[in-house]
UniProtKB/TrEMBL annotation:
Domain called Small ribosomal subunit protein uS10: residue spans: 95-192
UniProt record similarity statement: Belongs to the universal ribosomal protein uS10 family.
Any single Pfam family the record assigns to this protein: Ribosomal_S10
Official protein name in the record: Small ribosomal subunit protein uS10 domain-containing protein
Domain of life, per lineage: Eukaryota
Keywords: Ribonucleoprotein, Ribosomal protein
Native source organism of the sequence: Remersonia thermophila
PANTHER family in UniProt: 30S RIBOSOMAL PROTEIN S10 FAMILY MEMBER
Chain intervals for the UniProt region annotation (Disordered): 1-66
SMART domains hit by this protein: Ribosomal_S10 (SM01403)
Compositionally biased region (Low complexity): 1-14, 37-56
Length: 261
């Protein structure tokens, strides 16, 4: 069984440390044996030896100019910095704070959040390192006379801040839901979201109340009615008594029962 061929690492290939294959030279025209005479062996060897250095130099120069990565664009982007969009007005719409005890998990999820924001057309800024939260506890190892035998514990919480500017509220909610769905282990999230509206908010709220009342009219009509059978058109349904009438009926029944005893 033959051994599998070695796969070159991707990072040295992207950084240019591993030489790439030079592009092939332009295809020459085909020649037939009838039209071109074959040169003798000594003359062909001299010509090839004379043109060898020039051909190597030309291949190296063309290889330097036309170095193109063989990786797909989506795969190559994983080894590059996340793409970002520019903010037009600079109005903050969301502050996402990430917390973790592991710097590796935190940096990985920050990179994931920035890439997701780019594809959702959200201008993201960060991650900005925030002050660490240091907590310490002292616990005695034993009791009674061994009080001096104690043990100290420390927990450091790392934090990063990612800010979204000029983001649409729907896109921001979609971004947060996507991050919550694909949450990484050991990383906590806390988001502060701001939504901006017009100055005449009270008028819009009044309109929404009127629209809600119209929608509820059909449902309120069925309240406090007894559905016995299909009533003919134009005849109202039988209505239940009001709460006041029910209270009077209950009080009268109590007096009647008490007087009969």
């Amino acid at each position: 069984m033959s051994t599998p061929r070695l796969i070159r690492p991707l990072r040295p290939l992207l950084q240019g440390q591993v030489p790439r294959a030079a592009p092939r030279a332009a295809a020459t025209q085909l020649r037939t044996y009838a039209s071109v005479e074959q040169p003798s062996a000594p003359s062909a060897a001299k010509a090839s030896s004379a043109n060898a250095p020039a051909a190597e130099e030309a291949a190296e120069e063309s290889g330097k100019k036309n170095r193109v990565s063989r990786l797909p664009r989506a795969l190559e982007a994983l080894y590059l910095k996340p793409l970002r969009r520019e903010a037009e007005y600079g109005v903050p719409t969301c502050d996402l704070q990430l917390r973790s005890y592991s710097a590796r998990n935190l940096e990985f999820f920050c990179d994931f959040a920035l890439r997701a924001a780019y594809y959702l057309n959200l201008p993201a800024f960060g991650p900005v390192p925030l002050p660490r939260l240091v907590e310490r506890w002292t616990v005695p190892k034993s009791t009674f006379i061994f009080k001096k035998s104690q043990e100290n514990f420390e927990r450091i919480t790392l934090r990063r801040l990612i800010q979204i500017k000029d983001g649409h509220p729907d896109n921001v909610q979609l971004w947060l839901a996507f991050l919550q769905k694909h949450a990484y282990y050991g990383v906590g999230m806390k988001a502060n979201v701001w939504e901006f509206s017009k100055l005449d908010v009270a008028k819009e709220m009044d309109k929404s109340v009127d629209e809600t009342a119209k929608l509820m009219e059909g449902k309120w009509d069925h309240l406090a009615y007894v559905e016995k059978k299909a009533e003919p058109e134009g005849k109202p349904r039988e209505q239940l008594p009001t709460p006041e009438a029910l209270e009077q009926f209950i009080a009268a029944e109590r007096r009647r029962i008490a007087g009969g005893r």
